[in-house]
Design brief:
single chain, 132 residues, alpha+beta, Alpha-Beta Plaits, 2 domains, four-stranded antiparallel β-sheet, 4 strands, 39% strand
């Protein structure tokens, strides 16, 4: 198994249900034959720097996953011909990874990020109190 980071930009004009169905389709393809999604970050609808297919907004979803190269190639092939996928990008992060160890790493990273965010919020609250 290889580890990949995949970012997909979907059509923002789709309904919430259609959007979930669209991304679920590609998740199923990527997770076939033992692949696994380690982390899924839904970034929501964002304005793009330039229009793609006359669309100014897109729904962004980022995945950290393990998959076989065959599954990734198939998902990319289908994304190229799908009109509701505006752009996608996949990056190989590693080869022959230990999935369980990587899951623990990701959880640790998320905990550290939350602690840093809380510390930043506390710092902002403290500076606001000291000013006022």
């Amino acid at each position: 198994m290889r580890e990949y980071e995949v970012t997909i930009i979907g059509n923002a004009q789709l309904s919430e249900e259609a959007s979930k169905k669209l991304f679920k389709r590609y998740e199923d393809i990527l997770c076939a034959e033992g692949g696994e999604i380690l982390r899924r970050d839904e970034w929501g609808a964002k304005r793009m720097a330039f229009p793609i297919n006359k669309q100014f907004r897109g729904k962004y979803v980022n995945y950290d996953l393990t998959a076989l190269p065959v599954q990734l190639a198939e998902a990319e092939r289908l994304m190229r011909i799908d009109d509701n996928i505006l752009r996608y990008m996949s990056v190989k992060l590693g080869e022959n990874i230990d999935v369980e160890a990587r899951k623990k790493e990701i959880v640790k990273e998320q905990v550290e990020a939350e602690k840093a965010k809380e510390a930043e919020q506390e710092k902002a609250r403290f500076s606001a109190k000291s000013r006022g």
